[in-house]
Amino acid sequence: MALSVSRLPLGAFGQTRFQVPVIGQGTWEIDGRNDSAAIAALRKGIDLGLTHIDTAEMYGEAEPLVGEAIAGRRDEVFLVSKVLPSHASRRGTIAACDRSLGRLRTDHLDCYLLHWRGGEPLTETIAAFETLHRQGKILSWGVSNFDVSDLEEALRIAGPGKIACNQVLYHLGERAIEHRLVPFCEREGIAVVAYSPFGHGEFPDSRKASGRALAEIAQAHGATVHQIALSFLTHRQNVFTIPKASTIAHVEENAGAAALLLTDAEWAVIDRAFPRGSCPDLLPML
Fold this sequence. Notes:
The protein has one domain (19-204, 234-248): Alpha-Beta Barrel (TIM Barrel), CATH 3.20.20. It has helices spanning 35-47, 62-69, 90-104, 122-135, 148-158, 181-188, 209-221, 225-233, 248-256, 264-273, and strands spanning 10-12, 19-21, 25-26, 52-54, 78-83, 111-114, 141-144, 163-169, 191-195, 239-241. The protein is an alpha/beta fold. The protein has ten helices and ten strands.
């Protein structure tokens, strides 16, 4: 598959052959409000190079909306969906993938993820992923919301180089993955995909010192605070992010973050304003 040339910086997506924009488009909760606006936003995002589009069977009607948005432009898009852990048996994963392909109006996914660790054995889910890969229905596979011990187990089962990515919660107020998870993924050649990069209704308040520090840096660049946050979160080579695409204005703002280059001094200010905190045993999950 030949992806279109993006205006955004590209990064190697794990050990796959894909070069993927570091900023993509998420689709959690895009359905049910203004579907035509959501479709228009996704299409505008593709125009601007936000060609990494992430969705999931859990996201209600998001998959059909994405399918409509990418109709006629499938070859331009790096398309990702996810299987629910309750469907992640060997047979269930294959059936779930087929349903997602139908809703997305495509014959393959560029990457297929286990949404989070559930009760089904990882051996069964991974076996299903490998079957789907051999069949050409998925071109790579990965996981979501896995901590280091989960990844270690998955690597023992699958072997090196098979896990394309780990999609996890990561924003300025939740930087704990920088302690162990991000370095582990760097060593193992696993891409880190940050969901909810602006938090979940918790974006830094400009009335607080941390929010003011972010605002001052944004003003110096003629940028928005959200653009500064995206630039900070994607400064590592193996980190990608998928802010929700809901309106054309938001998509244009997200794409604009690609042109930013923070200085070392600015990076240090943000690092101090939003400390990583302690290293948790388990990952937070939305």
